[in-house]
Amino acid sequence: GSTYSSKVFRVTFLTLAASLTVPLLGVTVLLDCPIDPQPMSLKEPPLLMGVLEPNIKLRKAERLWENQLVGPESIVNIGDVLFTGTADGKIIKIEDGEIQTIARIGHGSCGTREDEATCGRPLGIRMGPNNTLFVADAYYGLYEVNPGTGETKMLVSNKALIEGQKLSFLNDLTVTRDGRKIYFTDSSSKWQRRDYLFLLMEGTDDGLLEYDTVTKEVKVLMKGLRFPNGVQLSPAEDFVLVQETAMARIRRYYVSGLMKGGADMFVENMPGLPDNIRLSSSGGYWVAMSAVRLNPGFSLLDFLSEKPWIKRMIFKLLSQETVTKFVPKYSLVVELSETGSYRRSFHDPNGVTVAYVSEAHEHNGYLYLGSFRSPFICRLNLQHV
């Protein structure tokens, strides 16, 4: 009897599935898809073993200023004063534990996806010489901000055409010690920051740019990067590292020396999607992962990379907000040596304490963890991990 009933169940289930699938497919074919994804080929993710072995070290971090700020993507310090840009378009300073807004590049109300383009979204933030701040606002461009007076000065407008392309999504920047050159990424000439998931799925080609503060010229240094994101000059300032988020790798572009103008691969096939990159006190680099590629385990990005038709189907039917809910919460920060090998890794599986880490900024024996959506900054004591 049981084999008969399981047969009946199977037939009923398949009939039901087919009866639902056919109209759904019909509807799906007619729906517009916002993205035009191309197959991307990623290697099998590296095994999480050795220095990449999962741990719960990030859970030792403490949450600071909880619910007093939201989405502190990137963090910089001038002495012991911290500065960050938040999801409501503000550039804030944190001095003696007190939060104060020093500037805003955008205007109007903030809070919804629609507001973001006018509200502004400061992402990468760096200190230049004479304690000035340089900020990349995703919607407005590259700015210099005086942390004392809050005065803002536009250096490169998002409306500027650079080699025939407009800048749609300024993301991160790194500045030479003398303040002369700023290297920055435009993550997409097609998608804005609020559509970063479309960008991730589509993997459009964009680049690394250079702004000269003396001649005021902007040059494109690299093209064809799939979701270029965080950037960091090497300690000797002879090359710039640029995170290629959609390809889970880091590229290197030489800005001086014998190799000047050349580029190569610094780290490929990383255990996650690299977001921002910052110097570590050991002469290496801290890399924050915006998502993890679990192996052993399941990585949604890897599963979808060679299947553009599934991506089209998903985005015809679901909003970006809904799709984001399927991305497992898992926070990961890795430290790389100066040559790009893995030194150590800090994990928070399920994002219990640290959720959505976008940057790891080292200052005074602590790692300050930025996040593009959490309402706090996390601080990890490096002596205790």
UniProtKB/TrEMBL annotation:
Domain of life: Eukaryota
Alphabetically ordered keywords of this record: Glycoprotein, Membrane, Transmembrane, Transmembrane helix
GO molecular function, one term: arylesterase activity
UniProt topology in membrane: Single-pass membrane protein
Main location class: membrane
InterPro entries hit by this protein: 6-blade_b-propeller_TolB-like (IPR011042), Strictosidine_synth_cons-reg (IPR018119)
GO cellular component: endomembrane system; membrane
Similarity comment text for this entry: Belongs to the strictosidine synthase family.
The protein's name: Adipocyte plasma membrane-associated protein
Source organism of this protein record: Anhinga anhinga (Anhinga)
